[in-house]
Design brief:
The complex is a heterodimer of chains A (432) and B (968). By secondary structure, chain A is mostly helical. Chain A is built from 18 helices and two strands. In chain A, a hairpin with a 2-residue loop joins strand 1 and strand 2. Helix content of chain B is 47%, strand content 10%. The chains are: A mainly alpha (432), B alpha/beta (968).
Chain lengths: 432, 968
């Protein structure tokens, strides 16, 4: 019989997914079976239960700073190899769980009105439920395997929200770009998980402390692998180019994903594995360099962008870069506070982005001509910087060029394969 | 080509001019003025214009055939309308026999109803498989006969530019690469102040500014290698745009004869941005950034990018870059046309009742005749006729309604003084509230007029930065009117204003600083939690939070009482900074008041209270907010105009002067100005402090009726909102619209002019008691005091183009929401304070969003004037714009004879009598009984409550509630 804390955990993780499953099944049975209202109520119930679950955990765990590990049985067990379904509750987990569930709830309420009469209404709320479960899984995961499950749920929802308007080309192109970036970076995550399994016997969060006993090179490699995963999800350099493109989705999904929750998930991973990071100073140095360069890169772009959402996306990115640097420097508590406050600030700014015209009118419509600090110090480079920032330092193109040889290789192999198949079948024809 | 030749410049200039005509002509979105989307085609006849625009831009000219057919099957178009449309097109030739059993009319009728524009074989295969043996034989016969047919009856697609051909050839899309680069340059160059750092060197013009950025190190994008070098040389040599364009055209192999179509199609590929350049080139005042924007420079930048992008793609795909050679690569598509022809033939044989043998027996000449007849009945022509039928059905309902009302109509009793009179904007959104007012009894009269109340002014409100024109866009005001605080409130005003400025400055700084690196970090920690609480309150309690905020503001920092500086000394010629006269002289004021009162026919029997209501709309998170405001006030709110008009009409001297013009306003009549918010149905009055004490009771009664009416009207609006319950009480309706207008997440704060269809110019008795479903512009006009038709002429000259602009903008945005409209609002992203685009990068989207037009029935406006054909023809002869609109059929015109009630429709043959074909239209006790349970469009019906000849005994239809006048 699970105790109250376990009930809280189960509620917060399982409730949104269950409601999404019901919505999904109803669509499979008949497209218009559930009314908009019913779909919203279902999804909202799931999200409310998840939020109450987080609250239950908060109150039953208390506000003390101890961590509790909850064993929820085996997830996968093959022979004597097993992946336990471990959950883990500490203040970090609680903070992220509450942030995620509260903001999802708020955005769901917003979206009920925003997406009224929209053909993809059910799809939107279905994905919202999956996303909520993903965040809760990540927050409470006691082992990296489970964390990865939540991680992937968020990733796929993110890509599907970007491609929400799939009847137009641009959203689909952007969704594919985001998805590809995620996949490339997730490879790092997988390599790290397998290595930790191999080296430490388990990927449980509580067991990561043992990482300091591993060799310096090994732990650095593992840390770097995990960092790559985090860089992808949090759009750090050099994987930043998908973020502005992610503005293709409906406004509330942009607010929830790229303003508040999803963009911080990579940083949360780094907070989670901070024992590994602390054991790997080289990786920490990498984090500082990448974090600060992302911050400056994004801040420069945010200054030049003329569209509401693009400027916000880069302003957000600049802060995540700073938070990454803070984490890498070891200021984890400050980083967490910065992260939460930042998420709360941006969600409101994103949701109000369409109000830009009215705001400008209220402010007085005078262009704001404050030169940046950098421009004041180096006035000669400001034109160069402007040109570069406007085109986002051509990061998209650079990524494309980096991928091009692989594409070329794949295409050549495909062509070669085709030729081989043809010649083989010709030979077969001749023989018969 | 030799650059610099003068005739070449002319050719290029002509091509740019042509391009300008097909580009959207919409200014920055802050002030949204409805206009005919195809205004530059207005010299053509409507059908020719929409079809030509369609061929130039690929936009849809009409609804699709299947939509019209669905309307036909749903009873929205009746057989009579369809037959009439075909007959009026074919005339005599409709009776010619094409086949033994098939007249030309029958052939057309059959093609109108059957899907034949099919070029794939799948449909035919499917029909073949599911057919009976006899039908199979027929299909086989059709296939056989299709061999004897000449080419397909309808024209082939044609190509204007490289990108179109590349798409057909499945090569990479050059537009993706070009637009990616170009959109950012356009947005940066035209930015009106959204970015923290503006683009450097903008005053050099677009071409040189962009070239300079490449010279400073922008680098070529991956898809356009070499473009940076091109621009560097342009920057070095200061190459003028025309030379750049000519060089690019030469490199792309565009000869003079394709030049115009190439330039037009290339400009239209990014028509929103190109259109904004073209617009700002000719309307410099709209460009707050004062950057020199020209279409030629836009095209020059575009073509430099395009040349390199095309060169890259063509060399990779091993295609020629030169246009003629590339065009030759397009594969011949005629193969699949044979089965398409067979399908047409099969459908016709079915319609003609032919069997396989019959079809095979048709001889060659007959077949050719048939084919020629089919070729004239193109899909486009069919849609044109469907459109006529679609409109004529609705026009019949309206005209029948007016005819049916005639015997029952309520002619105002001139012996009895009304309790209150209300003047509204002609806007069709005010139709429901006017009807609701009138349902309170014959003592309440309403009038409609263009919402600027005859006072064209540049108005500066208390907190405005500078004056703006509050009048139709075609008028340039000669007068300026300022709102100033009362002398006793001056100190408070100054204190409040300085506090307000501090607050605004703080908000502005927060807005911008939160987007910088250091500011973002600091403000996150400072404001993050505060913002989250704010977001939660605003999203969970939209109505409560805004109302509370407003109440607290009102309590803590009330707006100081103000007056308008409306009147100036007769001899005073003081001019404001902008060279305008400040306020009106007695003479000018009298003239304006006289004109308004005479125009609406209110020259005697004044009620004690006359309320003049302008209108505007308040909504949140809505870049298109201004599109809901008053078109007659230049896309602004009409409250100031109404206030000014009422103020002038209350001036004792004006009243004395009016008497000499034959208009006697009794001493115990008081005019009150106000503003009706069409989003939340709030009504606020101005200058109530001046209300004479003796009239307080009368005003309270008038306000009470208006308050009940706005609730009834709000409930009527709610029937269109699917998330409001049905039926809904007036109070619940008001609550719903108030919530709706305050929701940040609301893409449909109101439906605006959606469903507008008709404009009635005449006495209210022509339509009072008719439920017009908020679809009719209502303009009051009394033909009995206008023997020379001067008033009518003025009304038509002013209201005709405004109404036509609104109706046509809705028409085009509804017919092709992606091309003429701006698609769904959900991914919209405000850019450069200029307009909106989709997501992170797209064309600048012009026109109306889907959420504003989703209920609209795209039709031309039917103007019904209470006048005679002769009078209208005379006016059309004198007013060029009205003539153009009417004769070219951009609006439809009908008239009702003031004396006899006889009706006439304007057709290509001039005015022809219209005989109402159905006079037994339904009668309901009140409006709510008519619309209370329906969400769909409603045909006109009679409303008994508004036709009563005596006042009702007690309050009936309406719910009692706390009653308190609202103040501005």
């Amino acid at each position: 019989m699970p105790d109250i804390l376990q009930w809280g955990l189960i509620l917060s993780i399982a409730a949104p997914l269950t409601c999404s499953l019901i919505i999904g099944l109803s669509i499979l049975v008949r497209r218009e079976w559930l009314s908009e209202n019913a779909i919203y109520k279902l999804c909202n119930t799931g999200l409310l239960l998840a939020f109450s679950g987080s609250l239950i955990v908060l109150f039953s765990h208390g506000f003390n700073n101890t961590a509790i590990e909850v064993d929820a049985g085996h997830w996968i067990s093959i022979g004597d190899y097993e992946i336990p379904a471990l959950l883990y509750v500490d203040s970090l987990a609680l903070a992220f769980s509450l942030l995620g569930s509260a903001l999802t709830l708020l955005v769901a309420r917003f979206s009920q009105t925003y997406l009224h009469k929209e053909a993809g209404f059910a799809r939107f709320f279905l994905l919202l439920g999956v996303f909520a479960t993903g965040t809760q899984l990540i927050a409470f995961a006691g082992a990296l395997d489970l964390f990865f499950a939540g991680w992937e749920a968020i990733g796929i929802c993110s890509a599907l929200f970007i491609g929400y308007f799939y009847e137009r080309e641009e959203p689909v192109r952007s969704a594919i770009r985001a998805f590809t970036t995620y996949r490339i970076c997730d490879a790092g995550f997988l390599v790290a998980i397998v290595s930790i399994h191999e080296l430490l016997g388990s990927t449980s969060i509580s067991g990561l402390m043992a990482a300091e006993n591993l060799g310096g090179v090994t732990v650095t490699l593992i840390a770097v692998m995990l960092m790559i995963a985090a860089f992808g999800k949090s759009a750090q350099l050099p994987f930043s180019s998908w973020l502005p493109r992610a503005m293709e989705g409906p406004t509330p999904s942009s607010a929830l994903f790229y303003g508040s929750v999803s963009i911080h998930v990579g940083l949360f991973l780094l907070l989670r594995i901070s024992p590994i990071l602390e054991a790997a100073p080289v990786a920490q140095a990498l984090g500082i360099v990448v974090g600060l360069s992302t911050a400056f890169y994004a801040a420069a772009i945010a200054r030049t962008h003329t569209d509401a959402k693009g400027a916000l996306a880069h302003a957000t990115l600049a802060q995540t870069g700073l938070i990454l640097a803070e984490i890498s420097l070891g200021f984890t508590t400050f980083a967490l506070i910065h992260l939460v406050c930042h998420a709360l600030l941006r969600v409101w700014q994103y949701l109000r982005a369409p109000n830009t015209m009215a705001d400008a009118h209220e402010f007085g419509h005078e262009p704001h001509h404050a030169p940046s600090l950098l421009a004041k110090i180096f006035p000669l480079t400001s034109n160069w910087l402007y040109a570069q920032a406007l085109h986002r330092f051509r990061l998209d193109d650079r990524m494309d060029s980096a991928v091009a040889p692989f594409l070329w290789l794949a295409e050549s192999l495909a062509r070669w394969d085709e030729q081989l198949r043809r010649s083989l079948s010709r030979r077969q024809d001749n023989n018969s | 080509m030799k650059p610099g030749h003068s005739t070449e410049t002319d050719v290029l200039e002509h091509a740019l001019q042509t391009a300008r005509h097909i580009l959207p002509d919409q200014g920055p979105i802050g002030v949204f003025i409805h206009h005919n989307t195809l205004h530059s085609f207005q010299h053509l006849r409507f059908h020719d214009a929409v079809q030509e625009a369609a061929s130039l831009t690929g936009a849809r000219p009409y609804l699709d055939l299947h939509e019209f057919r669905a309307a036909f099957h749903a009873g929205r178009i009746e057989e009579a309308d369809l037959a009439a449309a075909i007959r009026s097109h074919l005339g005599e030739s409709g009776d010619e026999a094409i086949l033994a059993t098939l007249s030309r009319f029958q052939l057309w009728h059959h093609l109108m109803l059957e899907e034949t524009a099919m070029t794939n074989t799948v449909e035919l295969d499917w029909q073949f498989r599911s057919a009976s043996p006899a039908e199979r034989k027929l299909i086989q016969a059709a296939h056989k006969r299709a061999d004897d047919l000449p080419a397909a009856p309808y024209e082939k697609p044609h190509y204007n530019r490289h990108a179109e051909v590349l798409r057909v050839l499945n090569a990479a899309d050059s537009d993706v690469v070009v637009h990616d680069e170009l959109i950012r340059w356009c947005a940066a160059f035209l930015d009106q102040g959204q970015a923290l750092t503006p683009m450097p060197g903008r005053d050099l013009g677009f071409l040189q500014a962009v070239a300079r950025m490449y010279a400073k190190g922008a680098g070529s994008p991956r898809g356009c290698p070499g473009v940076a070098e091109d621009f560097q040389s342009i920057a070095r040599n200061h190459t003028p745009p025309h030379t750049v364009i000519r060089e690019c055209l030469h490199d792309l192999g565009i000869e003079e004869q394709q030049l115009t179509s190439f330039i037009s199609a290339t400009a239209a590929a990014l028509n929103g941005w190109a259109g904004m350049f073209a617009r700002l080139e000719h309307h410099e005042a709209e460009n707050h950034a004062h950057t020199p924007a020209t279409l030629a420079e836009f095209m020059a930048v575009r073509l430099v990018l395009e040349r390199r992008a095309l060169g890259h793609i063509c060399s990779q795909a091993r295609l020629p870059l030169q246009w003629p050679a590339l065009l030759a690569q397009v594969p011949d598509m005629s193969v699949c046309q044979r089965s398409g022809n067979a399908l047409i033939l099969y459908k016709i044989a079915q319609g003609a009742g032919l069997d396989a043998a019959g079809l095979e027996a048709i001889d060659e000449t007959q077949l050719n005749t048939l084919w020629q007849a089919v070729a004239t009945c193109t899909p486009l022509k069919r849609r044109e006729l469907w459109m006529d039928a679609y409109e004529s059905w609705y026009y019949r309902q309206i005209l029948n309604g007016i005819a049916a009302l005639r015997p029952k109509r309520l002619i105002p009793d001139t012996q009895q003084r009304p309790a209150a009179q209300y003047m509204f904007c002609m806007d069709e959104r005010e139709e429901s509230i006017r009807r609701a007012v009138e349902e309170h009894g014959p003592d309440y009269q309403t009038f409609g007029l263009a919402g600027f109340f005859g006072v064209a002014i540049d108005y500066q409100g208390l907190y405005d930065h500078k004056p703006a024109a509050y009048c139709p866009v075609v008028v340039t005001p000669a007068h300026e009117v300022h709102e100033t605080p009362l002398y006793t409130h001056r100190d408070w005003h100054e204190l409040r204003n300085s506090l307000r400025n501090v607050w605004r400055y703080a908000r502005r700084r927060t807005h911008f600083e939160s987007r910088t690196l250091s500011g973002g970090a600091g403000l996150s920690l400072l404001l993050g939690p505060v913002y989250a609480v704010m977001a939660a309150i605003r999203i969970l309690l939209p109505r409560g939070s805004v109302t509370t905020h407003e109440r607290v503001t009102e309590r803590v920092s009330p707006k100081p009482a103000t007056r308008l500086l409306a009147v100036r000394d007769t001899n005073s010629t003081i001019r404001t900074e902008r060279g305008k006269l400040l306020g009106f002289t007695l003479e000018e004021a009298t003239e304006r008041v006289t004109n308004v009162l005479r125009s609406i026919g209110l020259v005697e029997n004044f009620a004690p209270i006359v309320i003049a209501l302008g209108h505007g709309s308040t909504s949140l998170n809505n870049p298109h907010e201004s599109a809901h405001d008053c078109g007659a006030c230049g896309g602004r709110r009409g409250g100031a105009n109404a206030r000014l008009f009422a103020g002038l009409a209350n001036e004792p001297e004006v009243r004395i002067a009016l008497r000499s013009k034959g208009i006697t306003i009794p001493a115990d009549t008081w005019f009150i100005g106000g503003l009706h918010d069409t989003a939340d149905d709030n009504i606020s009055y101005s200058d109530l402090a001046d209300l004479p004490h003796a009239l307080v009771d009368a005003f309270e009664q008038a306000d009470h009726v208006l308050d009940l009416s706005r609730r009834m009207s709000a409930a009527e609006r709610c029937r269109r909102f699917h998330n409001a319950s049905l039926p809904i009480t007036p109070d619940a309706g008001l609550h719903h619209v108030e919530t709706r207008a305050r929701q940040l997440a609301q893409p449909r704060p109101e439906y605006g002019h959606c469903t507008n269809a008709v404009a009635v110019v005449g006495r209210r008795s022509l339509t009072r008691g008719l439920h017009l479903d908020r679809r009719a512009f209502l303009i009051s006009y009394d033909p009995t005091i206008d023997p020379e038709h001067q008033l009518l002429e003025r009304i038509l000259a002013a209201a005709g183009p405004v109404g036509a602009g609104i109706s046509l903008e809705y028409y085009f945005s509804a017919v092709d929401n992606e091309r003429y409209g701006c698609g769904t609002k959900l991914p919209h992203n405000v850019i450069g304070l200029l307009g909106i685009m989709n997501g992170h990068k797209s064309d600048l989207r012009t026109g109306l969003p889907l959420q504003m037009v989703e209920l609209h029935e795209p039709m031309r406006l039917l103007i019904i004037a209470e006048s005679t054909p002769e009078a209208l023809l005379g006016i059309a002869g004198r007013q060029a714009e009205v003539r153009e609109l009417v004769v070219n059929r951009w609006v439809q015109l009908a008239c009702v004879d003031p004396d006899t009630g006889a009706m006439y429709m304007f057709t290509d043959k001039g005015f022809v009598p219209y005989v109402p074909d159905k006079l037994d239209i339904p009668l309901f006790d009140n409006s709510a009984a008519r619309h209370g349970l329906h969400r769909q469009h409603l045909t006109p019906a009679l409303v008994a409550a508004a036709l009563r000849r005596s006042a009702p005994h007690a309050e009936q239809t309406v719910h009692s509630m706390e009653h308190r006048p609202r103040y501005a």
